[in-house]
């Protein structure tokens, strides 16, 4: 008995999720722990302990790997340059015609010796103390559709800004800013334990010491000094999300760059718990409805409403291109609600036709009458408010399309007045003076249950468990 409980799907799922979360948190913590160089190991020493002087130099080109000075154009230099301090600079670059015609453009950045001829490409590249990094200033993707007033543009506004995008072809977009970081932590690195995130950018000076490591973190020319953890974290994000949508990648990068590490860890932990409770709620809800024999005491209107609301919310999240972490549970919830409607109304498919095979019992007929009465009272408040909100949104709020307006109006009504649709079920509970007909196993994830308490039908949780044990024996 105990072994079967340990091997239940719920226990296995929760155990795997806890193990994965623990591993992820430990992996994130490892990024901030520098490699340790033992006494018997061969190690690379940092040149930063000598406090070398540097200047910053930038070029742009239309090629990723320019081979000569004719392929690049000088942009800017800063001499001397303090790489240990935060530095920001706004720079204007003339965009060539080729780039405007859906071409590509690259920015090449160097930290090099102060005595190097900074405006000469070959001198900068061949300096043994040079640190180099490059980034594409352009990126191809399909323009996002702009919102506009569906009933016509307002006076004094530019109509070109109101039109939706109908072109599905990708066009060149420019990064609004470029951020790159210099690793300023000084620590010896064992030659047989160089982290991958550092090793791919590591260069050695003529004296055998490793030079400061520089790497682009995307997006006005801004340079920040950086410690080991955030520096190692950046390429991991780029690698894992490099093939994802531009919007998703920007959101993920914002999470890692704008959030405090401890807050990020707490958020990850709470999100994991939320996923566990979602899974358990889905499981218990399905078990309740699978074993349901009668709809007595359960509001059919509330069941239909929950299905409609869940579908609208899912379509809204799909329209807003929400993260899969939110979209997938919403989709699963919508499918479960649709299945519950088929159970509640005993709907069966005969070919392409839907057929309701259930004959109402006396208890279900009484419930239906109470449900209709509760819905009539609700309609006096609900419908005028939702209709007024939709009309206001149509008149004063820009939208991408009529479909977008419809989905937004529906979801606003659900979020604003959805709690009112609990009224038919509450009305039934009040009239029957009972809540024993509700899926309490799903609710127990939110509220503790006294199993020794008897309900209105003389049942208790302890007695139910004893009956189950006798059946299994």
UniProtKB/TrEMBL annotation:
Membrane topology value: Multi-pass membrane protein
Annotated InterPro entries: CLPTM1
Catalytic activity: a 1,2-diacyl-sn-glycero-3-phospho-(1D-myo-inositol)(in) = a 1,2-diacyl-sn-glycero-3-phospho-(1D-myo-inositol)(out); a 1,2-diacyl-sn-glycero-3-phosphocholine(in) = a 1,2-diacyl-sn-glycero-3-phosphocholine(out); a 6-(alpha-D-glucosaminyl)-1-(1,2-diacyl-sn-glycero-3-phospho)-1D-myo-inositol(in) = a 6-(alpha-D-glucosaminyl)-1-(1,2-diacyl-sn-glycero-3-phospho)-1D-myo-inositol(out); 6-(alpha-D-glucosaminyl)-(1-octadecanoyl,2-(9Z)-octadecenoyl-sn-glycero-3-phospho)-1D-myo-inositol(in) = 6-(alpha-D-glucosaminyl)-(1-octadecanoyl,2-(9Z)-octadecenoyl-sn-glycero-3-phospho)-1D-myo-inositol(out)
Protein location: Membrane
GO cellular component terms given for this protein: endomembrane system; membrane
Entry's transmembrane regions: 261-282, 303-318, 377-396, 402-423
Keyword annotations from UniProtKB, A to Z: Membrane, Transmembrane, Transmembrane helix
Record has Transmembrane helix as a keyword: yes
Purpose of the protein: Scramblase that mediates the translocation of glucosaminylphosphatidylinositol (alpha-D-GlcN-(1-6)-(1,2-diacyl-sn-glycero-3-phospho)-1D-myo-inositol, GlcN-PI) across the endoplasmic reticulum (ER) membrane, from the cytosolic leaflet to the luminal leaflet of the ER membrane, where it participates in the biosynthesis of glycosylphosphatidylinositol (GPI). GPI is a lipid glycoconjugate involved in post-translational modification of proteins.
Family indicated by similarity: Belongs to the CLPTM1 family.
Protein name: Lipid scramblase CLPTM1L
Source organism of this protein record: Armadillidium nasatum
């Amino acid at each position: 008995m105990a072994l079967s409980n340990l091997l239940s799907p719920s226990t296995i799922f929760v155990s795997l999720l806890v193990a994965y979360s623990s591993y992820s948190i430990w992996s994130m913590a490892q990024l901030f722990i520098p490699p340790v160089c033992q006494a018997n190991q061969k190690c690379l020493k940092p040149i930063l302990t000598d406090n070398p002087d540097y200047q910053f130099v930038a070029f742009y080109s239309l090629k990723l790997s320019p081979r000569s000075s004719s392929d690049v154009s000088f942009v800017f230099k800063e001499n001397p340059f303090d790489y240990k301090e935060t530095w920001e600079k706004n720079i204007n670059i003339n965009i060539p015609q080729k780039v405007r015609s859906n071409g590509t453009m690259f920015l090449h950045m160097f930290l090099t010796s102060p005595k190097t001829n900074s405006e000469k490409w070959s001198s900068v590249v061949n300096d043994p103390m040079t640190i180099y990094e490059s980034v594409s200033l352009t990126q191809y993707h399909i323009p996002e559709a702009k919102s506009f007033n569906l009933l016509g543009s307002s006076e004094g506004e530019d109509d070109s800004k109101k039109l939706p995008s109908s072109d599905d072809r990708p066009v060149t977009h420019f990064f609004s800013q470029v951020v790159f970081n210099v690793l300023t932590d000084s620590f010896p690195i064992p030659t047989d334990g160089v982290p991958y995130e550092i090793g791919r950018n590591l260069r050695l000076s003529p004296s055998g010491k490793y030079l400061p490591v520089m790497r682009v973190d995307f997006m006005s020319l801004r340079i920040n000094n950086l410690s080991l953890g955030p520096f190692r974290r950046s390429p991991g994000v780029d690698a894992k999300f490099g093939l994802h949508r531009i919007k998703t990648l920007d959101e993920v990068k914002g999470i890692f760059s704008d959030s405090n590490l401890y807050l990020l860890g707490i958020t990850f932990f709470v999100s994991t718990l939320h996923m566990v409770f979602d899974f358990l709620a889905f499981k218990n809800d399905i078990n309740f409805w699978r074993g349901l024999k009668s709809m007595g005491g359960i509001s059919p209107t509330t069941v239909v409403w929950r299905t409609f609301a869940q579908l609208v919310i899912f379509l809204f999240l799909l329209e807003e291109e929400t993260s899969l972490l939110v979209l997938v549970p919403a989709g699963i919830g919508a499918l479960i609600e649709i299945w519950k409607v088929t159970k509640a109304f005993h709907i069966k498919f005969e070919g392409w036709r839907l057929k309701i095979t259930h004959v109402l019992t006396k208890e279900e007929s009484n419930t239906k009458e109470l449900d209709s009465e509760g819905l009539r009272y609700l309609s006096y408040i609900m419908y005028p408010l939702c209709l007024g909100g939709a009309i206001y949104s149509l008149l004063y709020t820009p939208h991408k399309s009529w479909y977008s307006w419809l989905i937004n109006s529906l979801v606003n009504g659900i979020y604003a007045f959805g709690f009112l649709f609990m009224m038919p079920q509450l009305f039934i509970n009040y009239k029957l003076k009972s809540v024993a007909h509700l899926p309490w196993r799903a609710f127990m994830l939110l509220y503790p249950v006294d199993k020794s308490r008897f309900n209105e039908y003389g049942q208790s949780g302890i007695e139910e468990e004893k009956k189950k044990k006798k059946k299994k024996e």
